[in-house]
């Protein structure tokens, strides 16, 4: 793609968060994995692991993102997070919109979907955590990119309330924020917010 169209300009370009998540994903991906990348953007991660997993699906709510993924022969589905999926996946990858965004800062452009995490930066992350139990295989795991701007303590507590256990896989500081990649799995024993300290990094 030598020159971007206006629609492609509305798709999030790989940045520090993408590359951090990619680094962890390359180490985590297994040849037996049925994988899905949520909010694939320019599908860099899907492209890089396509020959390292059993199969990969790239999803996005932005039709321009899906056109880019199709250009690289990546199977695509237009979807809002995991809504509508009945399948179980061994590896779920997600770089969510996590920037705290006030109502007056929102725009109607597609790029807003990739950046707007709601007023506290956690709205999409929380919706994802509420859905993930239905789509993780028994030994499945999800890799989720989190920013310090979103409130790590609140994200951890929400995951535990949803019956998930989390572990930190990587972190890096960039300018005004710290980025983390966390691995999420279904807890062996359902936990609640009162034993959240067990999972603090």
Structure explained in plain terms:
This protein is of the alpha/beta class and 201 residues long. It has a single domain, classed as Rossmann fold, CATH 3.40.50. A 7-stranded mixed sheet has the order 3-2-1-4-5-7-6, with helices on both faces. Helix 3 links the parallel strand 2 and strand 3. The relative contact order is 0.15.
Summarize this entry quickly.
The longest helix is centred in the N-terminal third of the chain and has 13 residues, at 16-28. The protein is globular, with a radius of gyration of 16 Å. By secondary structure, the chain is of the alpha/beta class.
Write the layout of secondary structure elements.
Layout: H1 16-28, E1 34-38, H2 44-49, E2 55-60, H3 63-71, E3 76-78, E4 89-94, H4 111-115, H5 123-131, E5 136-147, H6 152-161, E6 164-174, E7 177-186
């Amino acid at each position: 793609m030598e020159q971007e169209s206006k629609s492609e300009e509305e798709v999030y370009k790989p940045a520090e968060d993408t590359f951090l998540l990619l680094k962890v994903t390359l180490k985590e991906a297994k040849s037996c994995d049925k994988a899905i990348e949520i909010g694939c953007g320019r599908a860099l991660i899907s492209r890089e692991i396509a020959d390292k997993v059993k199969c990969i699906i790239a999803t996005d709510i932005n039709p321009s993102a899906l056109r880019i993924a199709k250009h690289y022969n990546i199977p695509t589905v237009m979807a809002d997070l995991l809504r509508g999926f009945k399948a179980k996946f061994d590896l779920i990858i997600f770089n969510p919109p996590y920037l705290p965004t006030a109502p007056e800062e929102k725009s109607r452009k597609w790029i807003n979907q990739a950046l707007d995490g709601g007023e506290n930066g956690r709205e999409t992350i929380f919706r994802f955590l509420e859905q993930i139990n239905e789509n993780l295989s028994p030994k499945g795991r999800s890799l989720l990119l989190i920013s310090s701007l979103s409130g790590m303590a609140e994200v951890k507590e929400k995951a535990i309330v949803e019956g998930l256990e989390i572990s930190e896989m990587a972190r890096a500081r960039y300018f005004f924020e710290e980025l983390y990649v966390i691995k999420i799995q279904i807890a062996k024993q359902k936990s609640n917010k009162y034993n959240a300290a067990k999972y603090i990094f």
